[in-house]
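The protein record reproduced below.
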Amino acid sequence: MKNVVVVGSGPAGMMAAISASKSGHNVTLIEGNNRIAKKLYITGKGRCNVTNDKSIENFFDNVLTNKEFLYSALYTFTNEDTKKFIEDGGTKLKVEQGDRVFPVSDKSVDIIKSFEKHLHKNKVKIQIESKVVKLNVEDNTIKSLTLANGKKVYGDHFIFATGGASYPLTGSDGKLFDEFKRIGHSIVKLKPSLVPVELKDKWPISLQGLSIKNASMALYKGDKKVISFQGDFIFTHFGISGPIVLKISRYIFEGNDYSIRIDFKPALDEKTFDLRLQRDFQKYKNKDLKNSLDDLLPQKFIPVIIELAKINPEKKVNSITKEERRRLVECFKNLIVSVKGLRPISEAIVTSGGVNVDEINPSTMKSRIINNLSFAGEVMDVDAFTGGYNVQIAIFTGFLAGSNI
């Protein structure tokens, strides 16, 4: 039996602590906040998308960074294992659109209660308000941890599941990466992954809060198409956010000229949409243009798109020219916005970058540099799309780290 110290009480840390205890070790879970799992409370907008129900093969299609590194972990503790683990803790689960798995209650606190039940059952000691600031290493071995209050924590093996640098108010502030670097690990530069996008255009500001369903977005670098996605998004005071925007953000890098082309009616090609528009124009031929687009757009968006098409909103529909109609079709099917940049890493759903996985054994999550150190979750250079994939990565890497001490 070893004295195991797990730092960080997100899903990776909690699972690491539980699996280490099940393996026969004496485990202490250390958390800098005044309660555990603070970030998990806000996951999935407070509903906690705990995993994804896709097959293992399709699961890996949604991993963005170092998916090969994760093969062993996911096949050791699958998404099916995660569902059973949560339900064994007393929380019923359901599967929604996109195979996303949520608690039936739609409350993240119930997922946390399941973890807490397993922590208690396995006699994991929990130590809150204990922020680690230094790793004390001798002969490539951690001897102790120094806390912010000056106290030291001793152990035989240490697992760090301290997350990335997104949502710093939850404790995931990235401050320990300097310590990992100091003791010999290399750190892949941190950048926001899955983060809202700022636009140079000013008109989206007037649409703040407006959600658009089932649109298509294509990211362009100069004249070259990079990637495209279809789904929902929302206008914000700085630009755009929402599921497809977060996905696109992963392919935006500093120092490049990007634009995004939005198709508000991806189910129709331009010719078919033009015919649809002509039918609406015939239906509302005696109305002003501003009163003729309600069947196609939310009311709030109508004056904006008419202005972008450079048409007089007071003009009667029966006097709209073919050229004006063409400009309107272009705004519906190929509206171009210019990317200013990404929102700060503190607003990212997930952090890209972290401890270099080349320095971690993928079968055990043990450090190849420090003898008694393991990692789990987002602290490593692994990330995926939204949809429960990142929480699942945290859980199965935590399981592997705790099971292989």
